[in-house]
Amino acid sequence: MNITSTPPATPTPNPHLGRDSLRPDCSNCFALCCTAFGFTRSADFAIDKPAGTPCQNLDKDFSCTIHDRLRPRGFRGCTVFDCFGAGQAVSQRLFDGISWRENPGSQHDMFTAFKVLRQLHEMLWHLAEAQVKTYDADSARQAQDLREVIESIAGGSVRAVLTCDVEQLHGQVRAALRGISDEVRAGYFAGGGEHLDADFAPGADLIGRNLRARSLCGADLRGACLIAADLRFSDLAGADLLGTDLRDARLDGADLAAALFLTQPQLNSARGSSATTLPEWLSAPPHWLAAP
Ligand code: SF4
Q: Which class for 176: exposed (0-12), middle (13-18), buried (19 or more C-beta within 10 A)?
């Protein structure tokens, strides 16, 4: 495959389209991520915790007692997680600001709704990006239509959230993102350029690979495993990173500004620095910038 590092022009000017409400607001959440999910003791979590129970480090006011020491205390997984704004939406809108502590009978539905809404919000996040990246009016309309369907469910009742067919929505969103990815990535192959190996493919096993200073523009890396890969100073413009596993991937100096479908949790799990170039709607995680 031949690629060029010259990115196509950006089709529309507002990359933040509708995404403000898809950012976490922990101050308005009943610590649902610290309660709804279960942990297995591992490199990411220092303890076992069953789903539906509060973490031992959770305070009465839903804050974390070790918030500023999560990594050294063995809770790296907590610094990676991002709820895409589902926490505050469930806590404040779906359950009217009444916590699972005040009303223990709400726990099952509240925790289940949180897990569903997080998936819906993540789909909305990707569709917003797809909508501003495509040049094709029909594709933009399809992304907008899907957003409206999902927003209607996400903004509906607890029952609407709990009974929606998440798998079907995932399938529809995947197909829409796939089409827009193909269209956008094609723009990177128009002018010839560096040859990209055939093993840069969806789902590829690229664990620990030395990809330093490589041009990976327009590569289809969705679902690929890039754990601990060396991507320092690489150019990932137009590379599709939907679901790509970037845990411990080295991103110092990498250019991800025009990568497709990159999320904050992926960045949180990787190793970068202030020299990593990011899309303007994402930010460098605090642990990238902390003193070693
Ligand atoms: S360690 Fe803190 S942030 Fe992590 S689950 Fe427990 S209370 Fe939540």
A: buried
Pocket test for ligand 1, best of 37, 40, 58, 80 (most atoms within 8 A of CB): 58
Fold of 194-286: Pectate Lyase C-like (2.160.20)
CA gap 25, 210 in Å, rounded = 37
Query: How do residues 113-151 score in pLDDT, each as one tens digit?
Result: 999 999 999 999 999 999 999 999 999 999 999 999 999
Nearest CA to ligand 1 atom 2: 64
Contact 173, 127 (CB under 8 A): yes
Which one, of 284, 280, 247, 248, lies nearest residue 264 by Cα?
284
Which residue, judged by its Cα, is nearest atom 5 of ligand 1?
A: 34
Helix, strand, coil abundance in the chain, percent, nearest 5 = 40, 5, 55
| Sequence spans of domains, the chain | 194-286
Top-ranked range on mean pLDDT: pick from 5-14, 182-191, 254-263: 254-263
Nearest one of 116, 132, 98 to 18, comparing CA atoms = 132
- Residue 2 has what pLDDT? 40
